[in-house]
Fold:
Amino acid sequence: MGKDVIVACDFASAEKTYEFLDLFTERKPFVKIGMELFYAEGPKIVKEIKKRGHKIFLDLKLHDIPNTVKKSMAVLSNLDVDITNLHAGGTVRMMEAALEGLTREDGTRPLLIAVTQLTSTDQEAMENDLLIKEPIDKVVMHYAKNAKTAGLDGVVCSPLEAEKVHDTCGKDFLTITPGVRFADGDIGDQKRVMTPAEAKKIGSDYIVVGRPITAASDPVTAYNRCFEEFVD
Ligand code: C5P
Structure:
């Protein structure tokens, strides 16, 4: 799989999601299904979107004891998703167990990506709530290295961190970057943003784009614009 635009389908129901996906009659976007939609609709929404011809990033961010994560990953692997993820904070052993669970009998598996520190966690929260006293950048890179050591395929990170992740973990270690906005668009609640063209330039492998596409008056045109800036 090469560079691609992943559309965050942050809808509350299957009905709203299909209404949106029905707009795409030519190129079928890579779709991100998050907790809200998955918890509302269950595994059948994953199977249905897959059947419609979309690739799927199932964003459930698993974090539990290694054995539980391993068995849960085996279930997600059976759903035939293309990418799934977990929290690197669950330790290297948990990530290794996840990879084992995800790997099918024939050796194939979905890509497995780690979330390092959530972008909602700042230095102050990390120090006071988690008792981690190191600078946040160092913590993010350490978690990325742990993910690489465990054999994972990459991390979710801010587009501003993608270059450093590649320098630290290698060019082939994937960076999936949210926080993408058009140069002339509304940034909403995202704080540190980049345009699709800038994300391409700094070497991001996949961009995750939600509202600039889902809330656009013409979502197909907005998606095509993203695709042209980032992929073509
Ligand atoms: O609508 P918007 O483009 O901001 O959506 C971005 C998507 O990426 C959302 O699904 C959001 O939960 C997700 N995300 C993010 N920042 C992170 C991790 C995930 O915006 N650090």
Q: What stands out?
A: The chain has one domain: 4-230. The mean pLDDT is 96. The longest helix spans residues 136-149. The pocket of cytidine-5'-monophosphate is lined by residues 8, 10, 34, 118-119, 156, 178-179, 190, 208-212 (CB under 6 Å).
